[in-house]
Design goal:
Blueprint (H helix, E strand, L loop, with lengths): L18 E2 L1 E2 L11 E3 L2 E8 L20 E5 L3 H4 L20 E3 L18 E10 L7 E6 L2 E2 L2 E5 L2 E6 L6 E4 L7 E10 L12 E3 L2 E2 L3 E6 L7 E8 L4 E8 L4 E4 L4 E4 L4 E3 L13 E6 L4 E6 L4 E4 L2 E4 L2 E2 L2 E5 L13 H13 L4 E3 L7 H10 L2 E5 L23 H15 L5 E5 L8 H13 L4 E2 L12 E4 L3 H9 L8 H8 L3 E6 L10 H10 L3 E6 L7 E4 L5 E4 L27 H9 L3 E5 L3 E6 L9 E9 L2 E8 L9 E5 L13 E10 L11 E11 L11 E3 L2 E4 L2 E3 L5 E4 L2 E9 L6 H4 L5 H6 L5 E11 L2 E10 L5 E11 L2 E11 L7 E2 L5 E2 L8 E9 L4 E8 L12 E8 L16 E10 L9 E15 L3 H6 L11 E10 L22 E9 L1
The protein binds 1-methylethyl 1-thio-beta-D-galactopyranoside.
The site of 1-methylethyl 1-thio-beta-D-galactopyranoside has 13 residues, from loops.
Length: 995
């Protein structure tokens, strides 16, 4: 065979064409034809670049006995982080380069289509036995994913080269394969022209990272099959059309249906497929040479009046953007990991996945069909890095790249079009503008009737949905109402106004956050044009690493000595790298719950937010708790409530519970699954409603006078010195309370769009305290302080009143801000200052520390998880308990975390057995924010990785009047104004009881 680009020298490295020698790699289905997996150990050698290629690399006789072994599939940089036994290697001992992370920027000069000489080359070889081919049979070598360009030899002969890392590639090797031993050799270039099309926000890792197989194609085998399975919701009738490249028959035993490929089959009654009812029918497509086992889901998609209808009913997308990642295996996932994602998605009420930003491992789509998720299948195209070159030479706008881009669209379509779960094609992500994108859309429209998505087509000139990323709620509201500003082209504007609107990315889940999910959800509820959104992103794409002390940690950009990197921006998921749900995920699950409860005084309103199913599968479990202790409970059945309908259910008549001083009684109602529903177990709670039934305000204990002791006073369990400092409480050493307005900046706070810079400018992180006076006042000790930062006029005057109340001590704090609280006051040369915006506060409260209270924490208030003003849908009022350690949320990049809101009392105990009091109880006059940490805020702020946080000898307690919201400024709108904390006079009061 001859090739335009020489294969021996890898001359295709700078070729803009998609490949040579390939054939269409259509979807494969389970078959009775032989399939030989070539996964497993391969011989491997990593060359430095094209100047370092193994001569005669494809030759059968090449002696590779001394080469390393590498697992296929895997990425070599990830595989090389471990030794042959799988143990992590320390920095400096990595075997095959290292992963590198950049978000937008290319990892090499923007010099298309060329790449630098520094271009590692992975050479893979494997010998295998093959039974040989019978007359007329074919053999096809199939690669599910190789990053980036690669060339292939079989038995010493070059068969071609390919690109399109996350798409399948096939080579017909019939002429080369033989009975007995065969040799396959694959040379993979880390960088190639194709890399310019693959600039997604993820780790740069290379190699044969998805499976490889050798497929025997029988005489008369079915190489391509296409299934169209429509459902008519008005008649219940299905229409099936199976097309094949050879004559074949179609059989669905369960429906007692059979027919001929190429001819429509009408079925009078089927159960349709939706994400809520993922009904699949097993079917057989048989030719004389081969039988395929396929699964068919009947469903119809249609856009009508700005709504996307599935089987005639509008749907709402409650989605996530999912990259394929595992902290130990990188971009290579096993089915168990994919299934784990499915379970997590389904148990958190998520119904849609955008496969950002490339077609996933095809087995994931099988799972989406089976378990029910709507999928936006996105093509492997992103050229974001050209933004740094003013989009000059951007491939989508350059005709030379057209063939490669069309090739990608065509291969995505061929591989994925039979999946009922795929409800939309996406051309790619962040690839700017250009005719090649429109040509991809044309190709998809011609070949399939699914809607086409591309967020970069802002005027919707060739796509079917209006899609945006990170638009703020205000703008989304305008779009929902259809009154958004028009596009320049009148016809395009009219078309766009008839399209459903999608937030293909929103609510950047980086670090602590996102805030304001509920604000978006309310808009989605209100405007039918809003099809929903996809949170960015599903998981923290961290990598398991070991530090110098041998401790494992989650690595991010920069941890691999990359010359250019984007640091923590890869740690922005709803699940942590080990797939533990973050508070952001629990919040999202509550916000998008398909069953919403509003608990009234004698009835509960139940809203069924499903699009297709009634609430048959659910029931209500209610309980009454007094101060967290359950006093009554029961179950309530649900009547027939159809999709998108609601009903009021009468509540049982309850006796007024007896309340002690300061107690509250709450009614909590959970919506629970009655029986197992696929991956969602019986008893799973999908939504909760609560209502305060009764409360008794706390009466303060009566005061007793302070007793002079030493240089200060004794007030119940407290010792206060003559400088007004609390020195001990219940015999435990104390770090005295100070006014605290600081939080360890979250990723959202510290981003340029966030408020962190203004907070730092006003010195909120470096407050100094001045004691103005300490006086004994009517038996209480009153301390006046002033707090402010160097160089800044804004600050706080605080009055602290300590009162002994029997064997306890009460503290009342009154905080009065003074000064301008304005950032950006830059004097001009004339000395005139221009005041900047008023600065709001991160938090407002007090922080102190105690010795030895390191064990359990109990509290009554919102929990069990952390919450913030704009992220509090998932938490419930009740009594919660955990350990000091588990009270912390272990964000991979340490930052403010763990705050519990609306806390009325809290108890912290020590693990040591001594004569000292085992427990501190804090009773709030009014409810408070409450945080307990085994380290200081400054430690949290200084640590770059969670593993660096080590418990100090004291437990740090912060009690807040309030804290600022979280927002999503790391990509998107900052904290919305209702969740700001303005500097205003505020008070807090607590009683400390030690027993
Ligand atoms: C947006 C990207 O599409 C996504 O891949 C990811 O990088 C995200 O940002 C940030 O994590 S693009 C951005 C410029 C809005």
């Amino acid at each position: 065979m001859t090739f335009v680009h020489d294969i021996e020298t890898a001359a295709f490295v700078a070729a803009v064409e998609p490949g040579e020698g390939r054939r269409v790699a259509a979807q494969i289905a389970p078959t009775d034809a032989p399939v030989l997996s070539l996964d497993g150990p391969w011989r491997f050698r990593l060359g430095e670049g094209l100047h370092d290629l193994t001569p005669s690399f494809g030759a059968e006789a090449l002696d590779d006995a001394n080469w390393d072994e590498i697992a296929v599939p895997s990425s070599w940089q990830i595989a090389g982080l471990r030794d042959a036994d799988g143990a992590l290697l320390p920095r400096g001992e990595w075997r095959y380069g290292a992963p590198a992370y950049t978000n937008i920027r290319y990892p090499f000069p923007v010099d298309p289509p060329a790449v630098p000489n520094e271009n590692p080359v992975g050479e893979y070889r494997r010998r295998f036995e093959y039974p040989g081919l019978a007359e007329g049979e074919h053999a096809v070598l199939r690669f599910e994913g190789v990053d980036s360009s690669f060339s292939v030899w079989v038995n010493g002969v070059a068969v071609g080269w390919g690109t399109g890392s996350r798409l399948a590639t096939e080579f017909d090797v019939t002429a080369l394969i033989r009975a007995g031993e065969n040799t396959v050799a694959v040379r993979v270039l880390q960088w190639s022209a194709a890399t310019y099309l693959e600039d997604q926000d993820m780790w740069w890792v290379s190699g044969i990272f998805r499976s490889v197989s050798l497929r025997t194609r029988p005489v008369g085998g079915i190489d391509e099959h296409r299934i169209r399975a429509d459902y008519d919701a008005t008649t219940g009738e299905a229409r099936l059309l199976v097309e094949t490249d050879v004559p074949a028959t179609v059989r669905i035993p369960e429906l007692a249906v059979s027919g001929t490929a190429g001819e429509p089959i009408v079925i009078s009654s089927v159960e349709p497929w939706t994400a809520e009812t993922p009904r699949l029918y097993d079917a057989e497509i048989a030719s004389p040479g081969e039988t395929l086992r396929v699964r068919i889901g009947f469903r119809t998609l249609k856009i009508v009046d700005g709504e996307l209808l599935v089987n005639g009913s509008p749907i709402r997308l409650r989605g996530v953007n999912r990259h394929e990642w595992h902290p130990d295996t990188g971009r290579t996932l096993d089915v168990a990991t994919m299934l784990r994602d499915i379970e997590l998605l389904k148990t958190h009420n998520i119904n849609a996945v955008r496969t950002s930003h490339y077609p996933p491992d095809p087995r994931f789509l099988d799972l989406c069909d089976e378990h029910g998720l709507y999928v936006i299948d996105e093509c492997d195209v992103e050229t974001h890095g050209f933004v740094h070159a003013g989009w000059v030479q951007n491939p989508p706008a350059d005709p030379r790249w057209r063939a490669a881009m069309l090739d990608r669209a065509e291969r995505m379509l061929a591989r994925d079009r039979n999946h009922p779960s795929v409800i939309m094609w996406s051309l790619g992500n962040e690839a700017g503008a250009g005719d090649n994108l429109q040509a991809m859309a044309d190709l998809l429209h011609a070949g399939d009737d699914r809607p086409v998505h591309y967020e970069g087509d802002q005027n919707s000139s060739y796509v079917d949905v209006y899609s945006r990323m990170y638009a703020a709620p205000d703008e989304v509201a305008l779009i929902g109402a259809g009154v958004e500003p028009g596009t320049p082209d009148v016809a395009a504007d009219a078309r766009r106004r008839r399209q459903p609107f999608l937030l293909c990315e929103y609510a950047h889940a980086m670090g602590n956050g996102p805030g304001a999910l509920i604000d978006y959800e309310r808009l989605f509820d209100r405007y039918p044009r809003l099809l929903g959104g996809f949170v960015w992103e599903w998981m923290d794409q961290g990598i398991t690493q070991v530090d110098a002390r041998g401790r494992e940690f989650v690595a991010y950009g920069g941890d691999f000595d990359e010359a250019l990197h984007d640091s923590t921006y890869i740690i922005d998921g709803l699940v942590f790298a080990d797939r533990t749900p973050s508070p952001g995920l629990t919040e999202y699950a509550a916000v998008i719950s398909p069953v919403r409860l509003t608990v009234g005084s004698d009835a509960v309103r139940v809203e069924n937010r499903h699009d297709h199913v009634s609430l048959d599968g659910f029931e209500l479990a209610w309980r009454v708790e007094v101060d967290g202790d359950q006093v009554a409970s029961g179950m309530l059945a649900l009547p027939e409530i159809g999709p998108r309908a609601d009903a009021d259910i009468a509540l049982p008549i309850l006796d007024a519970p007896a309340l002690a001083d300061g107690q509250q009684a709450w009614l909590t109602i959970d919506v629970v699954r009655r029986a197992d529903a696929d991956v969602v177990p019986a008893g799973h709670v999908v939504g909760t409603g609560q209502r305060l039934l009764a409360e008794r305000t706390r009466t303060l204990r009566s005061a007793t006078p302070a007793v002079a002791a030493g240089d200060g006073w004794r007030l119940g369990p407290a010792e206060i010195d003559d400088r007004g400092r609390l020195v001990s409480l219940g015999g435990r050493a104390v770090t005295t309370p100070v006014l605290d307005i600081w939080r360890a900046l979250t990723d959202n706070d510290s981003h340029v769009e966030g408020q962190g810079a203004r907070w730092l400018e006003l010195g909120f992180d470096r407050m100094l305290h001045r004691t103005v006076e300490v006086v004994e006042d009517d038996g209480a000790i009153r301390v006046e302080t002033v707090t402010g930062a160097a160089g800044v006029d804004s600050g706080f005057a605080t009055t602290w009143v300590w009162t002994a109340v029997g064997d306890a001590v009460h503290l009342r704090v009154r905080i009065r801000p003074h000064g301008q609280f304005r950032a950006g006051i830059e004097p001009t040369t004339l000395g005139v200052a221009a005041p900047g915006p008023v600065v709001t506060l991160p938090r407002l409260g007090i922080t102190f520390a105690l010795d030895g209270l390191d064990d359990r924490v109990r509290w009554f208030g919102l929990g069990p998880g952390e919450s913030y003003p704009d992220s509090r849908q998932a938490v419930r009022v009740g009594a919660h308990e955990t350990s000091v350690a588990a009270f912390q949320t272990p964000y991979a990049h340490p930052q403010e975390n763990g705050a519990r809101q609306d806390v009325r009392w809290a108890e912290i105990s020590g693990s040591e057995i001594t004569g000292r009091s085992p427990r501190l109880r804090i009773e709030a006059d009014e409810s408070l924010g409450f945080t307990v940490r085994p380290w200081r805020t400054a430690d949290l702020e200084r640590a770059t990785h969670a593993v660096q946080l080590e418990p100090s000898d004291r437990t740090w307690i912060t009690l807040d009047v309030a804290q600022a919201g979280l927002g999503t400024a790391s990509c998107g709108p900052d904290t919305l104004p209702p969740y700001w904390l303005h500097p205003q006079e505020r008070e807090l009061g607590v009683t400390f009881i030690v027993d």
